[in-house]
Design goal:
- The termini are far apart.
- 30% of the residues lie in helices and 12% in strands.
- By secondary structure, it is an alpha/beta fold.
- About 14% of the residues have low confidence.
- The protein has a single domain, classed as TIM Barrel, CATH 3.20.20.80.
- The radius of gyration is 26 Å and the shape is globular.
- A hairpin with a 2-residue loop joins strand 1 and strand 2.
- It is found in: Golgi apparatus membrane.
- GO terms for molecular function: alpha-mannosidase activity.
- Keywords: Golgi apparatus, Hydrolase, Membrane, Signal-anchor, Transmembrane, Transmembrane helix.
- This is Mannosidase endo-alpha like.
Amino acid sequence: MARLRRKACIALFLFTLFIFGTLMGLRTLKPSDGFSDLAPGLVLLPMIAGKMDRRSVSRDATASPGQARPAGSNTKVVLSNSGPEGTIFYDVHIFYYTWYGTPHMDGKYIHWDHILVPHWDPKIASSYPRGRHMPPEDIGSSFYPELNPYSSRDPDVLESHMEQIGASAAGVLVLSWYPPGLADDNGEPAEDLVPAVLDAAYRHNLKVAFHIQPYRGRNDQSVHDNIKYIIDRYGDHGAFYKFTSSTGKSLPLFYIYDSYLTPPESWSEFLTPTGSHSVRGSAYDSIFIALIVEERHKHDILAGGFDGMYTYFASNGFSFGSSHQNWKAIKAFCDGNNLLFIPSVGPGYIDTSIRPWNNHNTRNRVNGRYYETALQAALNVRPEIVTITSFNEWHEGTQIERAMPKKTVTRVYLDYQPHGPDHYLELTRRWAEEFNKEKEQWLM
């Protein structure tokens, strides 16, 4: 009997000790270990198949005053999947391409089957392979997309892209644009995709600017016509980007790729107040950003009547404009002439899948360190806007879109390991937040 009482006492003691320890452990938990510190007004999103259904969260999209919501478009806004309340920044712009196609959506592969571009010197060209890629196992990229080779016309792809751009905190996607019926040498016309891109961007609270590409016959007059077309057709859309200057004026902003192909005297007819078909002061007045490649281009850009310059290329040292060491001098020139300087940064560069002879311009990502070095160089010159090259230019290996490891019988693709597929989206967000913190200090 005594032995039974002793066992009962021991059991009671152990049970009491367990309860005491549990209570003490609960007391050490911080409020942040639960849900008590969610931002005010931020509701828990419903879970569907283990993922957050962001389409079920409705809040008013932020359209600029005077901008109409697109007719029939969904006004639900998708919260970004990272960052405080899905914060995005409209001073971080990212270059975006809609030139991809697949047999299922487009009847054939487009761009994923890119040709191997021959070198212009026949002697050098003879040392390298010719032909074209054979998707889906062999694509015109050194990386492989997590979405697999996709069609830019796929609504699910568009939705994923907008979600990823929102996750990166970039607020403006800069859409590569050709006039109706025109395309690059390896693509198909895609101007009819613009409304879908605008609507998808709108649902995610993103804005869209236009990147006017070179095409046969492009000149100052044709670009004038392009600008009128774009503003007339899309200018009232809630996702259409307008840049607000320090004077408070709000105007559309256009990037003009390879602007140096047209002489400054011709641009001045379009972009200076006294030009023969000047856009200045009209309903189509805008902010026009030219590409600086060579040092002399800065003077041509000024003479042509442009409002600023960008550098585009993600290969540091490839050109005068893309060399980080020159950005301070370019910024000083721009400041002295009331121009915007918009540096372009990228996570790396490798285009040998389509230009096998161009290995000397490859820039290794170094697990993100190359990207961070470029971002720091951009912040050092205190720009108004930073551009990211690119979201999905897979041919040149500048994409920050999610990629995955891939190995075939004939190829081993590069990937983001040891980091995950979101690594460059996360780095972009971190630096976008840092950029805006620093901008607040500059203003002070």
